[in-house]
Amino acid sequence: MAALGGDGLRLLSVSRPERQPESAALGGPGPSLCCWVSVFSCLSLACSYVGSLYVWKSELPRDHPAVIKRRFTSVLVVSSLSPLCVLLWRELTGIQPGTSLLTLMGFRLEGIFPAALLPLLLTMILFLGPLMQLSMDCPCDLADGLKVVLAPRSWARCLTDMRWLRNQVIAPLTEELVFRACMLPMLAPCTGLGPAVFTCPLFFGVAHFHHIFEQLRFRQSSVGSIFLSAAFQFSYTAVFGAYTAFLFIRTGHLIGPVLCHSFCNYMGFPAVCAALEHPQRWPLLAGYALGVGLFLLLLQPLTDPKLYGSLPLCVLLERTGDSEAPLCS
User: CAAX prenyl protease 2/Lysostaphin resistance protein A-like domain: which residues (predicted)?
Assistant: First the structure.
């Protein structure tokens, strides 16, 4: 983090004949101090989120319903209070976003329908191969599968399943709220949008290291396997966090990242090794390749800011003097 206080950071500025640092123009602290405030605020949010999972002392594993219910309570409290951290950051730095706090965090109606549908469609295209694999391995046909998915009894069973609620509802909502909607507005004026896309997921990835302690505590595997799994999970969650940060910036909405997060939690990491050994591996591998190719081809068009209206983070950067942010166009 020492690098964050160095001369390499872009200084916040206001568009004037003589460009001045934003914080100086507003009478606030210097740019380096603003960056330190931003980083400390993000670190505090990450620690608070993870710490809320351990306020309840229990000898039960994390997947036990009683543990999940208790963690629901604490993590929802922390997530509900997280916007106060952004509010405090705004007061300490003197930066004025030009929009309401909720709008800045992605809670807005303008462009909400494309923001809900297009990022999810884009993510499903990326998972074309795994979706084909799931379809091939499913014992029921498409019509029967749709009946199961749409049946009220199936949804009622899901809503009473604590693990399903955690993985598909609570975790996506609270993690995207804390690690994207709250952190990105604080990091973007300090680093710019591009670096923020890759800086923000580091907090998200490190926050998942707490699984190491639970696995070591319950001896779920060898020490080497646990740390190898943690390193892989950090890499995967960091890449995924960069993707959802990109979606949040380009759409200006929280709903897209939340739905994509829920979908990815359901799908899990693509079972590439199983696909290589599958009886129909060539069609599957073609599906994997086609999905990745279409994803890269459609990434920019389906996240075109013109589809979603005015982008709050881009408005924020315009007010701090950065009117040429590439992710805003």
Answer: 164-267
In this predicted structure, the answer to whether residue 222 has a pLDDT above a threshold of 50 is: yes
**Looking at the 3D structure of the chain, how many domains does it have?**
1
| pLDDT score, position 48 | 92
Catalytic-residue membership of 18: no
Distance CA 273, CA 283 (A): 15
104: left (phi over 0), alpha (psi -120 to 50) or beta: alpha
CA neighbor of 184 nearest in space, from 297, 264, 315, 86: 86
| 16 inside domain | no
Give me the pLDDT at residue 76, please: 96
pTM of the model: 0.86
Locus of tokens 């459609």: 298
DSSP summary character for residue 59: S
pLDDT in tens, 11-37: 333 333 444 444 433 445 566 788 999
Which listed residue (59, 64, 110, 208) is catalytic?
208
Look at residue 327 and tell me if it is in a domain: no
